[in-house]
Write a structure and sequence with these properties.
Blueprint lengths: L1 E5 L2 E5 L8 H4 L1 E6 L6 E7 L4 E7 L10 H17 L10 E5 L2 E7 L4 E2 L4 H8 L3 H20 L2 E2 L8 E4 L4 E4 L6 E2 L2 E2 L22 E2 L1 H16 L14 H10 L11 H15 L3
Antiparallel strand pairs: 1-2, 3-4, 4-5, 5-7, 6-7, 8-10, 9-12, 10-11, 13-14
Helix pairs in contact: 4-5, 4-7, 5-6, 6-7
Length: 278
C-alpha cells in the first residue's frame, strides 16, 4: 500500500498512480478509497460548484480485479446514466479520460449514504412516517422508470442510497450494474447486497424479469419503513396493508410476486392514499 497526499487528504492505493489531474478539477475535500467496485471517488470544490467524481483506472486497495476491467465497466455505465436521467438518480454532468483511466463527473449531493455507518440508518429510521414514505416513493419511481426503459435494477446497496435528511430527499448514486432486458443471472450471482437479491439472483443463467425488480422494491420498502430490515409487522411503521404488499413482493417464488414493477407501484400508491386518508 502507498499513500498519496492531495490538498491535505490521504489517498490509499495498492501502487502509485498519476492523480495530478485532480488539481485541474478543484480543491479536494473528500476521498472514498475503500470501495470494492474498482472505482475511487472524490469530492471536489471548483469555486463554483461541488463535484462528485467517480474514477476508474487506479489500483484501488479493496478491489480484487484489474484496473482495466474497472475502466471498461465505468465506460459502459456512462451510457446508463445518460439514458436513465431521473430526479432520483444523481445526474451525470460530464466525463473525461485521465492517466489511462476514465472519470464520470456528477454534482455533489448534500446527503449521507445509508451504509456503512449505522448512524445514518438510525437517523433515517428516526424520521416521521410521511417523509420516509415520500423518499421510498422517489426511489421506487426511479426503479420503475428504469424498468420502463428495459433496465433491470442490479447492484442495489445501502452504500448507493443517499439521503438528504433536511429536505427529505433520496437518490441513487449508482447504476453501474444495471442490465438491459432480456437479462439472466451472471456468474456467480447478480451484483448487489444480499438483502435486495431474490433467490433467482443466485442461480447463474436463470432468466430475470420484472418479478425480480419487484422483489428489490419490497426489500427497499423494509429498508426505509421498518425499524429493522426484517419482515416483522411489529417493526413496520406503515400499516398492515402496505406491510402485506411489501411481503408479497419478496415472495421466494417469482410467480407469486406482482409481475410488473409499474403494477406494484400503482398498488402501493393506492394504499398510501388510503393510509393518509386522501
Amino acid at each position: 500500500m502507498i499513500e498519496l497526499v492531495h490538498d491535505g487528504l490521504r489517498i490509499r492505493l495498492k501502487a502509485w498512480h498519476d492523480l495530478s489531474w485532480l488539481t485541474e478539477q478543484g480543491r479536494l475535500f473528500c476521498v472514498f478509497d475503500q470501495l470494492i467496485s474498482g472505482n475511487i471517488c472524490f469530492g471536489l470544490d471548483n469555486g463554483r460548484d461541488k463535484l462528485f467524481i467517480k474514477y476508474a483506472g487506479a489500483p484501488c486497495l479493496m478491489y480484487a480485479g484489474q484496473p482495466e476491467a474497472a475502466v471498461l465497466r465505468l465506460r459502459e455505465a456512462e451510457h446508463r446514466y445518460s439514458c436513465l436521467r431521473h430526479p432520483a438518480l444523481n445526474p451525470l454532468k460530464s466525463s473525461f479520460e485521465a492517466a489511462g483511466g476514465h472519470a464520470l463527473v456528477f454534482p455533489w449531493f448534500d446527503g449521507f449514504a445509508l451504509a456503512p455507518l449505522d448512524l445514518h440508518m438510525r437517523s433515517l429510521r428516526s424520521l416521521p412516517l410521511i417523509p420516509r414514505l415520500a423518499m421510498y416513493d422517489q426511489l421506487m419511481d426511479f426503479i420503475v422508470y428504469a424498468a420502463s426503459r428495459d433496465y433491470l435494477a442490479a447492484g442495489i446497496s445501502d452504500h448507493h442510497i443517499l439521503i438528504d435528511f433536511v429536505n427529505h430527499r433520496a437518490i441513487f448514486s449508482s447504476v453501474d450494474h444495471y442490465m438491459r432486458f432480456p437479462a439472466a443471472t451472471p456468474y456467480p450471482k447478480l451484483p448487489g447486497s444480499s438483502w435486495y437479491l431474490p433467490e433467482e439472483a443466485y442461480q447463474a443463467g436463470t432468466p430475470l424479469g420484472e418479478a425480480s425488480i419487484v422483489y428489490s422494491l419490497g426489500a427497499l420498502a423494509f429498508t426505509l419503513l421498518s425499524e429493522i430490515p426484517f419482515k416483522k409487522l411489529r417493526s413496520w411503521r406503515a400499516g398492515e396493508k402496505l406491510f402485506n404488499l411489501a411481503c408479497g413482493a419478496m415472495a421466494r417464488d417469482p410467480g407469486m410476486r406482482t409481475q410488473s414493477a409499474a403494477a406494484y407501484q400503482a398498488s402501493w400508491r393506492q394504499e398510501v392514499l388510503h393510509l393518509r386518508g386522501l
